[in-house]
Amino acid sequence: MTRRRVLLGLAATTLLLAGFTAAIVAGSRPAGARSASPEAIKRGAQFYASHCAACHGRAGKGDGESAAGLPIKPQDLSEGRILNTLPDHWMERLLRDGGPGVGLSPLMPGFERLLSDAQRSDVIAYVRTLAEPPYDPARVLAVPRERSGPVQPIFFSHLIHAGSFKIECRYCHSGAARGPAATIPSVATCMGCHKIVAAQGNPEITKLHGYWQRQEPIPWERIFKVPEYVRFPHKPHVRAAVACQTCHGPVEAMERVSAQTGQSLPNDLLNLVGLRPDPPKLTMGWCIDCHRASNAEGKQAPLECVACHH
Ligand code: HEC
Ligand code: HEC
Ligand code: HEC
Ligand code: HEC
Ligand code: HEC
Ligand code: HEC
Predict the structure, then answer these.
(1) Is 123 a pocket residue for ligand 4 (Cβ < 6 Å)?
(2) Which domain covers residue 131, as residue numbers?
(3) Is 128 within the bounds of a domain?
(4) Does 223 reside within a domain?
(5) Cα of 150 from ligand 1 centre, angstroms
C-alpha cells in the first residue's frame, strides 16, 4: 500500500518535472525567428503608407508631415541599431496598444481597431526591411512575453535604455564598481537626459518631472535582497569581472525587472528526485558554489563564515 503510494507520488513528480522541462524549453526558444514572404512585405508597405507615413515619413525617417507638431519625434525606422534588438512580439504589442503598452509615449497610437493582427504583422515585416544595418531575427534580445516582478512607480524599461539604446549598466548603477551597493540612479541622473529627451508628451516622464520638482526620491520597489545578516559587496565581483547578468539575468532584455530567488517548487522537486540542481540565486549554496568554482580557477573568493556574515 505505502509502496504503491510512493510509486504514485514519484509518477506525479515525474509528470510535473516533464511539464516544467517543457515550459523551460518553450520559454528559451529564440523570439521572432520567422521570416516574412515578399507578398506580406508588399501588403505591409501599403498599410504603412496609409497608417504610418503621416508621422514616420514615406521612407521611415521620422519626418512625415504630422511629425513637426509632435513634442516627441516619431522614431526614425531606418535606425537598425535601435530597432534591431526588439523582437516581433514587442513590436506587435507596440502596434496593438500604442506607446504606453511598452513604456513609450501615447503619441505613438495603437492600431488594435484599425488593423487586424495579420495586417499589423505585415506592417512589422515591412518596417524590418527599412533597417540599416539590416535586421537579423537571430540577433533580437530574448525578451520575455509575460512580464513578471513588481509594477514600479514609473514604467522604466531596461529593454529601451540598456537593450535598445545600449546605455551602460554602470552609467546608472555607478556604485557597483566603487562600493558595496550598485545603487539606483537618482532623479537627477534621470533628469540629466529627460530634461531634453521626451521632456513633453509622455505621462511617465511627467511623473518623473513631478518627483524632480517636489525633490522626492522615486519609491522603486526593491527586487534583489539578501537578509540583513549577510554582507554582499558589489565592488570585488565587478573587479573580478563577474558580469552583472551572471547574477541578475539578462536585465537588458527586461521591460520589468524580476528575480527568481530563494527556494522554489521546481527546485525542491528536482532535489526530491535526487537530481542536484544548481542552488537558487541568492541562497548561501549559490554564493558558495560560485566561490568554490572561482577559486578552482585561481581567484580568491572567501569561504569562511565571517567574510559573508558579520
Ligand atoms: C500620430 C503619429 C504616429 C503614427 C500615425 C504612427 N507613429 Fe509610430 N511613433 C510615433 C512617435 C511619436 C513615436 C516615438 C514614441 C516615443 O519615443 O515615446 C513612435 C515610435 C514608433 C516606433 C519606435 C519604437 C522605439 O523603439 O522607439 C515604431 C517601431 C513605430 N512607431 C512604428 C509605427 C508604425 C509601424 C506605424 C503605423 C502602423 C506607426 N508607428 C504610426 C508616432 C506615430
Ligand atoms: C538609464 C538608467 C539605467 C540603466 C542604463 C540600467 N539600469 Fe538597472 N535600474 C535602473 C532603475 C531606475 C532601476 C529601478 C527600477 C526597476 O527595478 O526597474 C533599476 C533596477 C535594476 C535592478 C534591480 C534592483 C533591485 O531592486 O534589486 C538590477 C539588478 C539592475 N537594474 C541591473 C541593471 C543591469 C545589469 C543593467 C545593464 C544591462 C542596467 N541595470 C542598466 C536604471 C538603469
Ligand atoms: C543617458 C540618458 C538617459 C538616462 C540617464 C535615462 N534615460 Fe530614460 N530614456 C532615454 C532614451 C534615449 C529614451 C528613448 C527615447 C525615445 O524612444 O525616443 C528614454 C526613454 C524613457 C522613457 C519613455 C519616454 C518616451 O516616450 O520615449 C521613460 C518613461 C524613461 N526613459 C524614464 C527614465 C527614468 C525614470 C530614468 C532614471 C531612472 C531615465 N529614464 C534615465 C535616455 C535616458
Ligand atoms: C556575484 C553576483 C552579482 C553580480 C556580479 C552583480 N550583482 Fe547586483 N546584486 C547581487 C546581490 C546578491 C544583490 C543583493 C544585495 C543586497 O541585498 O545587499 C544585488 C543587488 C543589486 C542592486 C540593488 C541594490 C543595490 O545594490 O543598489 C542593483 C541595482 C544591482 N545589484 C545591479 C548590479 C549591476 C548593474 C551589476 C553589474 C555592474 C551587478 N549588480 C553585479 C549580486 C550581484
Ligand atoms: C558568479 C560567481 C559568484 C557568486 C554567485 C558570488 N560570488 Fe562572491 N566572489 C566571486 C569572486 C570571483 C570574488 C573575488 C575573488 C577575487 O578577488 O579573487 C568574490 C568575492 C567575494 C567576497 C570578498 C570581498 C573582498 O573584500 O575581497 C565576498 C564577501 C563575497 N564574494 C560575497 C558573496 C556573497 C555573499 C554571495 C552570495 C549572495 C556571492 N559572493 C556570490 C564570485 C561570486
Ligand atoms: C560566500 C558567502 C557566504 C559564506 C562564506 C557563508 N555564508 Fe551563510 N549565508 C549566506 C547567504 C547569502 C545566506 C542567506 C541564505 C538565504 O536567504 O537562503 C546565508 C545564510 C546562513 C544562515 C541562515 C540559515 C538559513 O539557511 O536560512 C546560517 C545559519 C549561515 N548562513 C551560516 C553560515 C556558516 C556557519 C558559515 C561558515 C561555515 C557560512 N554561513 C558561510 C552566505 C554565506
Answers:
(1) no
(2) 38-139
(3) yes
(4) no
(5) 27
Burial class (CB in 10 A: 0-12, 13-18, 19+), 6: exposed
- In total, how many domains does the chain have? 4
Q: Is residue 159 within 8 Å of residue 90, measured between CB atoms?
A: yes
What string of pLDDT tens digits covers the 310 residues of the chain?
344 444 444 444 444 444 444 444 444 444 444 578 999 999 999 999 999 999 999 999 999 999 999 999 999 999 999 999 999 999 999 999 999 999 999 999 999 999 999 999 999 999 999 999 999 999 999 999 999 999 999 999 999 999 999 999 999 999 999 999 999 999 999 999 999 999 999 999 999 999 999 999 999 999 999 999 999 999 999 999 999 999 999 999 999 999 876 666 777 777 777 777 788 889 999 999 999 999 999 999 999 999 999 8
Does 254 map to a domain?
yes
Residues 42 and 131 in one domain: yes
- Tell which one of 48, 51, 56 to mutate to probe ligand 1, the residue whose CB is within 8 A of the most ligand atoms: 56
Residue 251 lies in a domain: yes
Same domain? For 80 and 24 the reply is no
Is the same domain home to 44 and 88? Answer: yes
Q: Which residues of 163-202 are buried (b: 16+ CB within 10 A; e: fewer)?
A: bbeeeebeebbebbeeeeebeebebeebbeebeeebbebb
